[in-house]
Design brief:
With 298 residues, the protein is mainly α. The chain has one domain: MetI-like (MetI-like fold). The chain has helices at 4-13, 15-18, 20-27, 30-52, 83-119, 121-135, 139-150, 154-180, 184-191, 196-204, 209-232, 244-253, 258-286, 288-297.
């Protein structure tokens, strides 16, 4: 009996893998295909940006504030730099840093949340009150204060945002760990002498990874927005580094030159929408009951 529970619970948590056709159908939906296509496009841009545009992104070799033309497809900025090359190189900064930010926040929040939910009592109270303290402040305001304290740079901006974003993961993982710690197979593992660390990694971890993957995919778009916001305010990327938020800030200072802020703004919009589409598809894939419920209501 002690072996039946893990199998049944594991089967429930990994139901999409047992129905490959149902799993594939989630990725053939229009929004999923659009999201994956946009993400693949920007990842290719980030990898091959150095070879896709002919000009140095830092070279001030051209006329200032030149509108889009056959020579400069997206125009030039206020310093006479080719905007297309800076947009492409900016993908090498904004997207990888957003992914690093989400991974760090996910690791910190998941570990802290799992420990709080599994052990409960004083540990749970301490962790949750700390999370509540962080969540009591608007995220961007707290990130601005932390980034200003650390000093303006992209590395410090990432660290500041990790301090802001970890409670989201901690609360989700804590709630999942609370519901799992009294499940039969977890209780059986403890009775057979399994250590707390092994129980968290082997028994609890696989049952929460799906929900965390959904949250992480949705949070990548938020991470891009927050990093761009800090750079827009001068607390992230510093001149002359090419970064989308800093480019939008340059466009705000030269409002008549509409192309400076428009194109990096559209790049931010596209990647945020793409990861939101991906997160929605992951949510439906890991919890098909949502899809069935929606069809039943319709």
């Amino acid at each position: 009996m002690t072996h039946a529970s893990p199998q049944s619970t594991g089967a429930a948590s990994s139901s999409p893998s047992r129905h490959p056709s149902a799993w594939r159908s989630h990725w053939l939906r229009p929004l999923a295909l659009v999201g994956l296509t946009i993400i693949a496009f920007w990842l290719i841009i980030a990898v091959f940006a150095q070879w896709l545009a002919p000009y140095d992104p830092l070279a001030q070799d051209f006329a200032r504030l030149e509108p889009p033309s056959a020579t400069h497809w997206l125009g030039t900025d206020s310093s006479g730099r080719d905007l297309l090359r800076r947009l492409l190189v900016g993908a090498q900064v904004s997207i990888p840093l957003a992914l690093v930010l989400v991974v760090l926040s996910c690791l910190v929040g998941s570990v802290v949340g799992a420990v709080a939910g599994y052990f409960g009592k004083f540990v749970d109270s301490l962790v949750m009150r700390s999370a509540d303290l962080v969540l009591a402040f608007p995220g961007i305001i707290l990130a601005m204060a932390a980034a200003a304290a650390f000093g303006p740079s992209l590395t410090n901006a990432v660290l500041a945002l990790v301090l802001v974003m970890w409670p989201t993961y901690a609360r989700v993982v804590r709630s999942l760990a609370l519901s799992l710690r009294e499940v039969e197979f977890v209780s059986a593992a403890r009775l057979f002498g399994s250590s707390s660390r092994r129980t968290l990694l082997i028994d609890v971890g696989p049952n929460v990874i799906g929900q965390i993957a959904v949250l992480a995919a949705l949070e990548v778009g938020n991470a891009v927005l927050l990093l761009s916001g800090l750079s827009f305010l001068g607390l992230g990327a510093q001149a002359p580094q090419a970064e989308w938020g800093a480019m939008v800030s340059d466009g705000a200072r030269n409002f008549d030159a509409w192309w400076i802020g428009l194109f990096p703004g559209l790049a931010i919009l596209s990647i945020v929408l793409a990861f939101n589409f991906l997160g929605d598809s992951l949510r439906d894939a890991f919890d098909p009951r949502l899809t069935r419920a929606g069809k039943g209501r319709s």
